[in-house]
Specification:
324 residues, mainly alpha, three-stranded mixed β-sheet, 3 strands, 3% strand, disordered N terminus
Length: 324
């Protein structure tokens, strides 16, 4: 009777020791030595543009009192999420290229995958919250300040963050039940949870069900909310008699629609490429658009298409130049 607990204890100890010594290999986008300096320079440039561009958006919004509105409050949080998701993936890739070392520890890989899920989920929820903000502004303009008050905006951010963290922890901690054997090569530039699960040599059915469920909830529900919001927005705008009024109403949604199209368009591209192509490397190249390029372009979309942002940026630039 005492033998079975001992065997179970030994198995658990063996599994724990195994996970402590596991190291994954991040193969990146190419194993060609001649391409490594080019990839390093390209990703360093994209990361700096992403970091500085989104930081500039946050500083601009916080420094201009005219931008202290719900729409720009949500935008500043979206920019912060963009900085975080890029900082979670790109620096490790740059370090690996520079050190010519593709290894990442089991703990480091799982931690990276968890943070990617947190910030990707947060970005998804924020885009839905921004769509709701535009819906209230256009469809219920007289009640806008009452509905979109500071308490609701803060609550939207907190709920989005909590949901994203709980989802990421659940999916990541479920990986701890898996065992890994040999050939721990991830054909990606960061630790993606689905790629980690593919390397397990134990049953992964529960993990796959959880991933598909989370993808349906975090992808489907926010997108459906955005879709419904814009149906109501279009219906309301078309009732405006003047063409100038319709244009002005639609122009307030232009930047958000561009970001939503880029975010979900590249996400759909990643899903289709992973389902169609047999080359994991090709899928990794497509995912660069979703996890890197989208975050880099967001500041340009919001600053170039928004008159208030351009004016605030000009004021901030003048103010910084006077200090220098």
């Amino acid at each position: 009777m005492s033998v079975f607990p001992s065997i179970s204890f030994l198995n658990n100890m063996e599994s724990t020791n195994q996970t402590n010594t596991i190291e994954f290999l991040l193969l990146g986008l190419s194993d060609d030595p001649e391409l490594q300096p080019i990839l390093f320079g390209l990703f360093l440039f994209m990361y700096l543009v992403t970091f500085l561009g989104n930081l500039l958006i946050i500083l601009t919004i916080s420094s201009d009192s005219h931008l202290h509105t719900p729409m720009y409050f949500l935008l500043s949080n979206l920019s912060l999420a963009d900085i975080c998701i890029s900082s979670t993936t790109v620096p490790k890739m740059l370090l690996n290229i520079q050190a010519q070392d593709q290894r990442i520890s089991y703990t480091g890989c799982l931690t990276q995958a968890c943070f990617v899920l947190v910030f990707a989920g947060l970005e998804n929820c924020l885009l839905a919250a921004m769509a709701y903000d535009r819906y209230v502004a256009i469809c219920h303009p007289l009640r806008y300040t009452v509905i979109m008050n500071s308490h609701l905006c803060t609550l939207l951010i907190l709920v989005s963050l909590i949901i994203s963290v709980v989802n990421a922890l659940l999916l990541s901690l479920m990986v701890l039940r898996l065992t890994f054997c040999t050939d721990l090569e991830i054909p990606h530039f960061f630790c993606e949870l689905s790629q980690i699960i593919k390397l397990a040599c134990s049953d992964t059915l529960i993990n796959k069900i959880l991933i598909y469920t989370a993808a349906l909830l975090f992808g489907g529900i926010p997108f459906f909310g955005i879709f419904l919001s814009y149906i109501e927005i279009v219906s309301t705008v078309l009732k405006i008699p003047s063409g100038q009024g319709r244009y002005k109403a639609f122009s307030t949604c232009g930047s958000h629609l561009s970001v939503v199209s880029l975010f979900y368009g590249t996400g759909l591209g990643v899903y289709i490429s992973s389902a169609v192509t047999e080359s994991p490397r090709n899928s990794a190249v497509v995912s660069v658009m979703y996890f890197t390029v989208t975050q880099m372009l967001n500041p340009f979309i919001y600053s170039l298409r928004n008159r208030d942002m351009k004016e605030a940026l000009r004021k901030l630039t003048v103010r910084m130049a006077s200090l220098i």
